[in-house]
Amino acid sequence: MAQSPDGDTKPRSRRPQRRQLFCPAHPEQRIEGNGKKYFLHLLTAEQLQARGMPDKKARLVIQAYPVLVLSNEWLEELFCPACGTSSWCHVTRLDRVEHTVRWAPRALWEQVAHVDPVVANPSVSEYSRREASRLNQKRKDGKRFFDAG
To answer: DSSP letters of 33-94?
Structure first.
């Protein structure tokens, strides 16, 4: 039992708090990720300045580290039960528990190494790619292939 300054005794939780991520569309709804994070890489001093670093310091950092990996910003696919979908989000860690979450704009993918959102995954066959997009195709009668009813 831990005693607070005002004399109250409260049981102390030994389990560390989990990160708290909330949906940008539903601020009261907690969302969960699958754990796969794509960290952002900065290549120019202007990108550092946009995050609040002074001009001179940003140029010195980029000279010392041509590619700077941000450990507190990443892209992650998160699932929101209220939306019912998984969406790619830009997550910024403020501290161990607090994070800000916003929808990830396509331009941020340019700052992720080894991922090109325009080029299709080479390990996926053409047949699999075609069948996956078939879900969005319509039949001759105007209904979708997998409509219920």
So the answer is: EEEEEEEEEE-SHHHHHHTT--HHHHHHHHHH-SSEEEEEEEEEEEEETTTTEEEEEEEEES
pTM: 0.65
Q: Report the alpha-carbon distance of residue 91 to residue 7 in Å, rounded.
A: 38
List Cβ neighbours of 44 (8 Å cut-off, separation of 6 or more): 62
Closest Cα to residue 26, out of 97, 98, 78, 92?
A: 78
Band the pLDDT of 54: cuts 50, 70, 90. very high
DSSP, res 5: T
Beta bridge partners of 41: 69
Longest dimension (CA), the chain: 74
CB 11 within 8 A of CB 1: yes
List pLDDT tens digits, range 128-138.
Answer: 877 777 666 77
List, in order, residues 6 or more apart from 25 with CB less than 8 Å away.
Answer: 80, 82, 83
3-state secondary structure 94-110: CCCCEEEEEECCHHHHH
Give the chain's mean pLDDT: 81
